Amino acid sequence: MAIAQNYPADRDELAAWLTEQGKMKLPGSLDIHLIELGDGSARMSCEISEKHLALNGYLHAASIVALADTAAGFGCIANLPEGANGFTTMELKSNHLGTMLEGTMVADAHMTHSGRRTQVWDVVVKAEETGKTLALFRCTQMIIYPASD
Questions:
Q1: d(CA 2, CA 68)
Q2: DSSP state of 80
Q3: What distance in Å separates the CA atoms of residue 35 and residue 42, rounded to the nearest whole number?
Q4: What is the domain count for the chain?
Q5: What CATH number does the domain containing 48 carry?
Q6: pLDDT tens, position by position, 82-129
Q7: pTM of the shown model
Q8: Looking at the domain assignment, is residue 82 inside a domain?
Q9: Spatial CA neighbour of 113 closest among 134, 146, 143, 133
Q10: What is the spatial order of strands in the sheet that 86-96 belongs to?
Q11: Sequence-distant (≥ 6) Cβ neighbours of residue 60 within 8 angstroms
């Protein structure tokens, strides 16, 4: 399995490719859906179901983190610097401010730093129906380049 690769250059083709690749991975198993892939941004959603809940019956924090990290990751792929062919998450932090038991979560990711070696992404996760903020998330992505001989 390759860690880094060449991604489709066209943003619409990239969005379709990411969606297809995610189906058999964590995003697919959690029903995370790409809404929009932009210049320095990404928007994703996830409709809450039983599999997103913790044993106590509340929304599992990891469900929110998975949505936020996926939004930041897809955004990073769409905004890689010239010559880069991948990334990996170096650090992440989340502040959980609320919960929900049903409905749809939406993650809005925005790149706040775009360097040659790193990107920093901030993500706000909200309840779609009420606009209530569920979490504030930040991650640092290390940019990967092809190995030089």
A1: 24
A2: P
A3: 8
A4: 1
A5: 3.10.129.10
A6: 999 999 999 999 999 999 999 999 999 999 999 999 999 999 999 999
A7: 0.93
A8: yes
A9: 143
A10: 32-38, 41-47, 104-114, 118-127, 133-144, 86-96
A11: 52, 53, 54
